[in-house]
Design goal:
215 residues, alpha/beta, Rossmann fold, 5-stranded parallel beta sheet, two-stranded antiparallel sheet, 7 strands, 38% helix, globular
């Protein structure tokens, strides 16, 4: 583990010293490496503090299902801010704070199906720190402005644009798109979302260059 990643782990662990449950938000554009950073943090923190001491609430579980996106006419830009159940996500974050003695059951996201799965995630009362990740955690409008006050800190994960795009193309191919369709989706859908997320970079408490994690 790099010294930079170790410093991030220490900073996340220090948040548990708060008297109440703490939620750490990790954001950044599609393909930047949010999930990788989150997985590294979870693995190290759980090894140090115990497997039930740290919870994980991905924003992706709050994707609107395709049947709903079809009805709303939004499926062709799936992943945009208004293709998520932001009200449900905010309600889940509030419950983490307001009902710390109850297990929170939350939806997960099944990549093979590209669909949310109800109650796939359970966050027990023992989780004093919860890490939540997603594109729009620091967005200042559209209902997303309610997220930031529920986070102790917001961390922004960044990567070079070419690296991000290549990761996204590989991901789309892995889950069923042809290479040409994957590249077209990245340019038409993912990149506009990335540009929007980039406007929230200055609102973050910490900016993480994923390339520094390899050094």
């Amino acid at each position: 583990m790099t010294s930079f990643l170790s410093a991030l782990v220490d900073r996340a662990a220090s948040l548990i010293d708060q008297p109440t449950r703490t939620v750490l938000g990790i954001t950044g554009p599609p393909g930047a490496g949010k999930s990788t950073v989150t997985e590294e943090l979870l693995a190290r923190l759980r090894a140090d503090l115990g497997p039930d001491a740290v919870g994980h609430l991905p924003m992706d579980g709050f994707h609107l299902a395709d049947v709903t996106l079809d009805r709303l006419g939004r499926r062709d830009r799936k992943g945009a801010p208004d293709t998520f159940d932001v009200d449900g996500y905010v309600a889940a974050l509030r419950r983490l704070h307001e009902e710390p003695d109850r297990t929170l059951y939350a939806p997960g996201f099944e990549r093979d199906l590209e669909q949310p799965i109800a109650a796939a995630i359970a966050i027990p009362p023992s989780a004093r720190l919860v890490i939540t990740e997603g594109n729009y955690l620091l967005l200042p409008d559209g209902g997303w402005e309610r997220v930031r006050p529920l986070l102790a800190e917001g961390w922004y994960v960044d990567a070079e644009a070419d690296v991000r795009r290549e990761r996204l193309v590989r991901r789309h191919v892995q889950f069923g798109k042809s290479p040409d369709a994957a590249r077209a989706w990245v340019e038409r859908v993912d990149e506009p979302h990335a540009a929007l997320v980039a406007t929230t970079r200055t609102r973050a408490d910490v900016v993480i260059d994923v390339h520094a994690l390899d050094g």
